[in-house]
UniProtKB/TrEMBL annotation:
It holds the Pfam family ubiquitin. It comes from Ficus carica. The keyword Protease applies. PROSITE patterns: UBA, UBIQUITIN_2. The lineage of its organism: Eukaryota, Viridiplantae, Streptophyta, Embryophyta, Tracheophyta. This is DNA damage-inducible protein 1.
Amino acid sequence: MKITVMTADEQIVSLDVDPHETVENVKALLEVEVPLQQQQLLFNGREIRNSEKLSAVGVKDDDLVMMVSNAASSGSTNDLGLNPDGSAVNPEAFQRQIRSDSNLLAQLFQNDPELAQAIVGDNVNRLQDLLRERHHQKSEYRRQQEEEMALHYADPFDVEAQKKIEAAIRQKGIDENWAAALEHNPEAFARVVMLYVDMEVNGVPLKAFVDSGAQSTIISKSCAERCGLLRLLDQRYKGIAHGVGQTEILGRIHVAPIKIGSVFYPCSFMVLDSPNMEFLFGLDMLRKHQCIIDLKENVLRVGGGEVSVPFLQEKDIPPHYLDEQRYSKQATSSENPVTSGTASDSKKVSTGGQSSGSAAHGGSTQGSDFEAKVSKLVELGFGREAVIQALKLFNGNEEQAASFLFGG
């Protein structure tokens, strides 16, 4: 194995030694640097005796051993040592020692720039945290290596050993898959910026969050008030959105103008008491206005392509908007489950003290209200079975069922 020895005069010596070599023999190899009788070796802040073997005191491959002179005071030698948790006994002295060696510092900047930056910086706590972290990582790596060696020599007929070998093989496959992804598909590990476009709602400019996973277009109470639309709030559509947390539905604004590019379009909104989310352009309006989310050109096309507006870059999105995806999972439509992001985040809205999703979930299509909706949509020229299916799909929401049927 290879070990690195830092001498008292700040020289770096690399040695290729056997793990079972005694400390006395290691000192003999270092005698060309410092007279044998003046050498003192420290590992993790503790002096190691001549009779001890490297493996017995815990020295592993690529470890750092400090070499000091017996002429130096024990206090100063201890200052350059490391605690059992990997932190420096005296971090200021440790910093000075590394800073004074330009070659070592250059190597450190190349191999571990984060640690090197902490050494040249003024934040001692950050340095100590990094040293502990590196120590923990090295300990974990050693533990894994030891487990692999133990499995290599394990009884092949031992059931528990076979389970561990199977788990190790599976983990190795995962690690190889991760390494391949990191090499060939590194962008998969980057944060995905959500889709925003510039819009105007009732003449007020804002940045709209485009979310095809939310079934309805949503505006917050504060945003509706800023846009002068709160006076049009229909409180008959009150309810509670249950899902990731709980959000109150204050009502619905049935129609208001939105401007996308240079064209005005009619839009309806659900109004939520959600200060964390300003405006969400949902699937209902994306479908109604035949929108196309073009990720190749990075634009939103509206009206089948008559208008194209670019999605905003991250630098153009206010920082507090970047967490909008989490809040969009609390968004919902007026009377039906909504999924925003994942299927497990579906919401059910209760209106009038009853579960509005009961018709769909219970399979019941009885009741005068439901039959009236069916008759009304059949009069528009749709088949009865298609109408019933659409109403069941949207939990009795007549307006969204009609939009679905027209869109189909």
